[in-house]
User: Fold DUF3987 domain-containing protein from Escherichia coli.
Amino acid sequence: QVDVCRPGNLRGPVNIYSVILSESGERKTTVDKVFMKAFYLRDEALAEEYAKLVENYSTEKEIWEQKQKALESKFHKEIRAGKDYKATESELETHLNKSPVPPQ
Assistant:
């Protein structure tokens, strides 16, 4: 969502209000399509870009989750075996703090 700051400390959404007045058959739809074409193209480009970001995020998240499972398994095994687990604990903490951020 985008807001615009206007004079007088006013904020509001970005909107385009347009009115086309003409008689039937005078190409209102054609004018609307020509006028809005750039907006539609931009929307399509943004949707494609966002889809790629979501796909990349899904891949990164899956890899991150698999690594988390492996580190947790290693951590639990070291605790059960009575081994020194501090290095794995530190690695797990670092990993947990670097979780992928979903696109907005």
